[in-house]
Amino acid sequence: MALTLVLLVVLIALAFEYINGFHDTANSIATVVATKVLSPGQAVLLAASTNLVGALFGTAVAKTIAAGLVDTQLVAVTPTVMICALLGAIIWNLITWWWGLPSSSSHALVGALCGAALAAAHNNWHAIIWAQGGAHWWGDKGVIPKVVVPMVASPVAGFIIGLLVMGLLFSLIDFLGSRQGLLRRLGRTPFVNAFFGKAQLASAATRGLSHGMNYAQKTMGIIALALASATTAGTFDDIPAWLHFLRMEDQAGGKFEIAIWIKVLCATVMAAGTAAGGWRIIKTLGHKLVRLHPINGFAAESASASVILACSHFGIPVSTTHNISAAILGVGVAKRANAVRWSIVERMVWAWILTLPVTAGIAWALVRLAHALDLPV
Q1: What is the reported pTM?
Q2: Least buried of 115, 182, 209, 235, by fewest C-beta within 10 Å?
């Protein structure tokens, strides 16, 4: 029974990764589709391949999810708890996908994991690592430094960098126009569209790479946590020798080493999800929020990728959705403030605000339901 539950966790985690592929990866190709630099099929292929490569680089984010949010000394992260957390995140992802809102799968997973752990710990708030370690008062481990602070700082950085990059490009275009009589109407001349259309291929590829480095690792962390907990609990003590690859030892200090098979499996599943598309999200970001030309797409993708790559390096599970949305918003404001459809922004912000508490509440309720049904929690 215990082994079956662990394997069920892995399967549901992979389902979450697949949904993440068409829910969140859609935002990485929204700009390149909206600017018509690539066809939808070409964009999906680019995103799937770059996400696959990106997912195989580094495990800092995976280790944060696996050992940086829940105190496993105070609460047992059982397979049932993990299943409830994953279901909470999946339910919210599907709801926001249906509404066409680019919400954060990252925050959905973090919120659901914390809510499920809190219910399993009988509402002992100390089971959640709020802030721990490091030289600063907020620490370098826990929900506050790794989730709450980046939740605000990441979109702000994306907005500012997108605004600055777009402003610099505008200045460059104006300079060339005044000196050589070129590029009189930004976004409409063949030269600008052709040049930044090619440049956007590089920025879109980098954006996909950064997304894979951050997002695929979240599911890697969940699977690693489930396998490490099962190994500690003795679930794998009597399994056949050919299944020993499932064993994952919890190393000193609550650290985990992510096995290569987990990396490859998660990367492949997310790439498959990407190939399934995600048109509701693409329409919101690429068509409804701001009207984009290739130069705008290049600026937004470059700004977003730079922030996400930096966060991935430091193991911060940042919301790539929030980041690219804010970068697009910054680019739109650089054009002119009324170029942005602010009603869409308002809906997106509400989805961002609600993600953590709603997913935590759903997962908390699912764990309490499992208790009521006398399921092994």
Answers
A1: 0.79
A2: 182
Average pLDDT over residues 229-249: 84
State the residue for tokens 């926001």.
Answer: 96
* Token digits of residue 263: 């990396």
Please name every residue paired with 128 in a beta bridge, in sequence order, or none if there are none: 70
Burial class of residue 191 (count of CB atoms within 10 Å of its CB; 0-12, 13-18, 19+)? exposed
**DSSP state letter for 374:** T
d(CA 125, CA 114): 10
Residue 28 lies in a domain: yes
Q: Is residue 195 part of a domain?
A: yes
Token pair of 184, please? 């009189």
Which residue, among 339, 298, 354, has the nearest Cα to 161 in the 3D structure?
Answer: 298
User: Tokens 């193991």 belong to which residue?
Assistant: 315
Supply the pLDDT for residue 287: 53
The two three-digit tokens of residue 41, written as one number: 């099929």
CA distance 83 to 86: 5
Query: 243 is in which domain, residue-wise?
Result: 2-372
* Overall number of domains in the chain: 1
